[in-house]
Design brief:
By secondary structure, this protein is an alpha/beta fold. The protein contains six helices and eleven strands. The strands form two sheets. A nine-stranded mixed sheet has the order 2-1-3-4-11-10-9-6-7. A two-stranded antiparallel sheet has the order 5-8. It is globular and about 45 Å long. About 40% of the residues are buried. The mean pLDDT is about 95.
Length: about 230
């Protein structure tokens, strides 16, 4: 699947909206997707949406998005009944994008267990440059560039030592935090692919309470890179 053209059907992207996220996080994820080259047909899915989160809905989706917002354990209490549905969708060839809380939920303690490892709190990691759970700006090395992103108690990701990066479902690490832990990656899961990110590449100006500023200004290219990587076969 490459650049979308007018003659091609729009790939369906389903974004969770409900008690395990916030409306602002879901809306920002939708704006990020609409700004990519993929021409997504974006819809919300959840307990109070017209589209329910179930196997039949996911069957036609090119991408399922789990946004940020909220805390892990309460969120998983709302979502745990969907674990098998989401795992089956990804194993069958679907794609998952997890941002911040959605990255935590891609892990296993608790979560959907989609990663060849797990997710944990960056602020508790050794030599973390942000050590509080409040609004912050964090520097990350994304591929070869160092840039700043909005951050609020997001995860870092770690891989099992025996994980084989040379298999067909090889993991691509896209970004690191300053202490060397993983800030964003894309990996295989069955026949599908999973993208996770700890900071918020979808954050717009409204996310920055004064006097918090992003020294690089606002840009969404890292979010687009993450989506391109998970969507490209």
């Amino acid at each position: 699947m490459g650049r979308h053209t007018r003659s091609e059907p729009q790939p369906l992207a389903l974004i969770y909206r409900g008690p395990a996220t916030t409306d602002a996080c879901a809306a920002a994820a939708a704006a990020l997707l609409r700004g990519t080259r993929w021409g997504f047909d974006v819809h919300y899915v959840g307990p109070h949406e017209r589209v329910p989160l179930e196997a039949q809905s996911l069957q036609s989706a090119a991408l399922y998005v789990q946004p940020g917002g909220g805390e892990l354990e309460p969120a998983y209490r709302h979502l745990h009944i969907h674990t098998d549905t989401i795992r089956t969708y990804i194993r069958g060839g679907g794609r998952y994008l997890g941002i911040c809380l959605g990255g935590y939920l891609a892990g296993a303690t608790p979560g959907f267990d989609l990663l060849p490892g797990d997710a944990d709190r960056y602020i508790d990691s050794p030599q973390a440059t942000v050590t509080h759970p409040h609004d912050a700006v964090i520097a990350v090395r994304w591929r070869t560039s160092v840039r700043h992103l909005y951050f609020q108690d997001g995860p870092y990701f770690w891989l099992h030592r025996h994980h084989d990066r040379h298999r067909d479902d090889a993991t691509t690490v896209l970004a690191h935090y300053p202490n060397g832990t993983i800030a964003a990656l894309v990996t295989g899961h069955g026949h599908g692919r999973v993208a996770v990110v700890g900071p918020h590449p979808e954050a717009d100006a409204s996310w920055y309470p004064p006097p918090l500023l992003n020294p690089d200004g606002l840009g969404f290219d890292f979010g687009h890179d993450l989506i391109d990587t998970v969507m490209t076969p």
